[in-house]
Known about the structure:
Layout: H1 2-27, H2 29-56, E1 59-61, E2 67-69, H3 73-80, H4 82-115, H5 119-129, H6 136-147, H7 152-159, H8 173-182, H9 190-201, H10 205-213, H11 218-229, H12 231-242
Antiparallel strand pairs: 1-2
Amino acid sequence: MENTQLTSAQAGRAAASQAKRAKMIRKHVIAYAFLVPIFVSMALFKYYPFFTAIVKSFYQWNGANINKFVGFDNFVKLFQDPTFYVSLKNVTLLTASFVVIQLTLPLFAAVCVFHARGRIQNMYRVLFLVPMVVPYIIIYLLWRWIYVSNGVLNALLQSVGLESWTHAWLGESATALGAIIFVNFPWIGGIYFLIYLAGLITISQELFEVGKLDGMNVWQRFWHIELPLIRNQIRLIIVLAII
């Protein structure tokens, strides 16, 4: 009898919980409806191409009239191709350099702006955020104009008598990787700067006052107060820089 009562009570609680969830779903059905176009777009333009690429990697396929299943032959050829390892090395270097750059320079800029006062702080905030509204295509075209054989960089080197230093910066294997890494100099991206600055703003001023009373210098304040309290922002920056 007691088991029957317990089972009935559990069933009643489960039914009440399901009814509550159904009520919440109905209440927020409009919000879920607004999410449908986003999920459809992601499915069409992200997930479908991704899984299609995985499937097609097992086929000899030219996009038109050849579609022959070859199993792992494509992967065997890939790992036997020396170009693959060169590409892998270059991608690793690019990713590592980008992560290191975004972990340091935007943080340095954010700390400097955070400790500035008055109009100077507001001015630098605007200056660091203005590049966010510039389309990336314009930035890349600008750097292409700098790097071409008759571009700004080679013209500058020639004007100071360093003709031997001129290169086809993006066309030579010795300089292409470094030239790509140097794009976006001084590498203080607006979004990364903003994330660091937002994290610094959330730190209680009382901690800075205590540090000042303890005689902390700038480096000690950064290492013992600021850096530990923006660890979540640093993790986010690492993820964004890698992807």
